[in-house]
Amino acid sequence: MNDLKTHFSIDKKFILMEENLILNELTGDPSGLTHGEYEARLLKYGYNDPADKKKKPFIIRLVSKFFNPIILTLLFVATFSYLFADKISAFFMLGMAIMSAGIEFIQEEKASREAEKLTEMVRVKTTVLRQNKEHHVSMRNIVPGDLIKLRAGDLVPADLRLIETNDLFVNQSTFTGESFPVQKKARL
Length: 188
Fold this sequence. Notes:
Oligomer: single chain
Largest sheet: 3 strands, antiparallel
CATH topology of the largest domain: Calcium-transporting ATPase, cytoplasmic transduction domain A
CATH superfamily of the largest domain: Calcium-transporting ATPase, cytoplasmic transduction domain A
Distance between the termini: 32 Å
Shape: elongated
């Protein structure tokens, strides 16, 4: 899998470049990539997948569940109960803390696995121009040099350089907090 950093380093030099120079360097043809060029770039750059978040080791994920304020309070009470010779209450409180952390851990692990399954099931498609034909492909199959056609309601499938626009408005509230769509233009 390819991480986003690779794509960002590829794209930096294209930010201020003229559109025709970008086309010449990346695609060479305004009709889009050929199948051979696409295959070569897919091998070179990999899939258009976000970087995988490294999962913490099992023991760290489990121990982190004990740093919940309620569980820490139970452990604190259990310690004092044990020190003041109330061993039954201490073991009861300790059992409640372990059970609570265990249940939270199990629920979170199940939810994480289900979220991963849902992500795998949902594949968003986009339209690319290859060999002068529009193709609907999964966003993960986009490579540098693909010409992407965006229409109303489409998700932006990758880090893009706009070449041509016609009344393009983008909702970027997740990045900037701006609640209204912002108009984007091909020229800086």
